[in-house]
Amino acid sequence: MATEHLTLEKFKNEIFDYETEQEWKYKGELPAVIDFYADWCAPCRMVAPIMEKFSEEYAGKAKFYKVDTEKEQQLAAMFGIRSIPSILFIPKEGTPKMLVGALPEADFRKVVEQELFNADAEENSAQQD
């Protein structure tokens, strides 16, 4: 499973329809990561193979999307993208979190685990029991 390119229409159908909903309500079955990028961006090209690797590694557990900010300017504007790469982490429940900049793979993995799967929260509660 590779990362999927996300268009404005696909975003409204699969992630969140901001035209009909007032408050954030994620439509997806699995947590998601959205990479806002541009082809000319060198840091974005560093993130791309990590996104591909994670999309295979987390297949069936999370979805990985890419948004070309040059082609999907309305979608990028909706999230206030001013710097790329900007990466949006969307848990199944709760509020999405945006990180700006290229993360090393280990840091990226840590954020995926914490934001999408509450890895730290589960570890902390297990240690307290």
Strand content range: 15-25%
CATH superfamily: Glutaredoxin
Q: What is the overall number of helices? A: 5
Spatial separation of the terminal alpha carbons? 37 Å
> Would you give the CATH topology?
Glutaredoxin
Largest β-sheet summary? 5 strands, mixed
| Apparent shape | globular
- Tell me which CATH architecture applies here: 3-Layer(aba) Sandwich
Characterize the structure shown:
- With 129 residues, the chain is of the alpha/beta class.
- The chain has a single domain, classed as Glutaredoxin (3-Layer(aba) Sandwich).
- It has five helices and five strands, in the order βαβαβαββαα.
- The protein has helices at 8-14, 42-57, 73-78, 105-117, 119-128, and strands at residues 4-5, 32-37, 63-68, 86-90, 97-100.
- A five-stranded mixed beta sheet has the order 1-3-2-4-5.
- Strand 2 (32-37), helix 2 and strand 3 (63-68) form a beta-alpha-beta unit.
- The relative contact order is 0.19.
- Mean pLDDT is 89; it is low at 121-129.
What descriptors fit this protein?
single chain, 129 residues, alpha/beta, Glutaredoxin, five-stranded mixed sheet, 5 helices, 40% helix, 18% strand, globular, disordered C terminus
What's the quick description here?
By secondary structure, the protein is α/β, with parallel strands linked by helices.
Helix-strand layout with pairing:
Layout (H helix, E strand, L loop, with lengths): L3 E2 L2 H7 L17 E6 L4 H16 L5 E6 L4 H6 L7 E5 L6 E4 L4 H13 L1 H10 L1
Parallel strand pairs: 1-3, 2-3
Antiparallel strand pairs: 2-4, 4-5
